[in-house]
Amino acid sequence: MVISWYGHSCFKIQSGEIVVFTDPFSKEIGLTPPRSQAHIVTISHNHFDHNNVEAISGNPLIINGPGEYETKGVNIRGIFSYHDDKLGKERGTNTIYVIEIEGIKICHLGDLGQKKLTDEQLEQIDEVDILMVPVGGEATLDAEEAVEIINQIEPRLVIPMHYKIPGLNLKFAGVEAFLKEMGITKPEIVDRLTLKKKDLPQDGAKIVVMKN
Fold first, then answer.
1. DSSP 8-class letter at 72
2. Rounded CA gap, 20 and 13, in Å?
3. Rounded distance, CA 77 to CA 195, Å?
4. Phi and psi at residue 109, in whole multiples of 5°?
5. How far is CA 148 from the centre of its chain?
6. Which of helix, strand or coil describes residue 66?
7. Mind listing the pLDDT tens digit for each residue in 114-126?
8. Each residue of 92-109: pLDDT tens digit?
9. How far apart are CA 197 and CA 132, in angstroms?
10. Cβ(161)–Cβ(139) under 8 Å?
11. What is the pTM of this model?
12. Which residues of 52-63 are buried (b: 16+ CB within 10 A; e: fewer)?
């Protein structure tokens, strides 16, 4: 499996010929949108910085809400959540996705705004290998809140997302506050993540910062 990050909440997950994209964004955010073919695209919520499905070619299956999905050997579970901590009154709803591919479970939190997951949500998420978590605050979790969610889910590997990077014209904090909160001074920084299930850490949650 190879994971690449395009910035914001947009990842490309590739297993052999199978390609999954999460939350493709539009150029209005200041970054270059992904241009690629895919078999599956997941959309956490219908905001312009997360739902630019037109950027992805290849007639993919578009998944944009809670439910159980399966195609081409990929199992996906969409889990209802809120984009804010006021039951959706400020920013509406959000879908958390658990994507199982090559026996590895990836959880993409989208623009989760809840400061705490419910027991029901945690039960649906279940055991997770890789967690993609927003950390930049403002419209979603900040550094401290992200750490609380990580402690609830207890993944093996954490990839921070949805934070300030060069070119992005949205107002977020950088990844530094999150790393400080996690007690990390020298993070592992990678261009892309290539791994198999046997490569996953066995003890604690490893943090990997990705370049876009």
1. T
2. 5
3. 22
4. -80, -5
5. 16
6. coil
7. 999 999 999 999 9
8. 789 999 999 999 999 999
9. 17
10. no
11. 0.93
12. beebbeeebbeb
